[in-house]
# Entry
Amino acid sequence: MNRNPIKILYVEDDLNLGFVTKDNLSLAGYDVTHCENGLDAAHEIKESQFDLCILDIMLPAIDGFELARRMRAKNDHIPILFLSAKSLPEDKIKGLKIGADDYITKPFSIEELLLKIKVFLKRSSINSPSKEKELHFSIGKYAFSYEDLQLKIGEQGTKLTIKEADLLQLFCSRKNEILKREEILNLIWGDDDYFLGRSLDVFISRLRNYLKEDEKIIIENIHGVGFRMVC
# Structure
């Protein structure tokens, strides 16, 4: 681990699950702040700095969706992971639209959670980005900095989440090339199950919206195959 431990905000009102999960995260070397309700978590979001957030959705006082909105208002690129018993697709899609990076349905394994955290931190600016990756791109009228998670057109800028930046970086590095859905899912999410396919559609819609000021940039849906970005 780094000399300064990674700081994680973990919000869970189930005391037994919270104790076990926090204990395992601490054993893995993370500095964990555990809140048992939304009010305490909202205070921590306002007053403290974190490297990653793990949020339950159904919480006393302030729910996980609202906490994610508040964290996104403060920090555009921090990884946010939902852990919840709410397993309906619409709940998952709502979380992703707010700006969450991933969603794990309870019950879950500690091994799965630790793996997800490692993936997010590897891709985030907490750990130095790979120098082998191309970090700056020109996309039509836009300038995209993967390193800074920044998409700019003229003086206007949009701060991307890590997942959005990962996906856009993939499209930029393979312009005009058809990318199969399962390839994108495995490269960005590490899996290609049905729900992640729905997640991909949400992120594609976000990128299209961010790039709408240049009509020459198109992210094509190749029916039954995948996507292609042309510009």
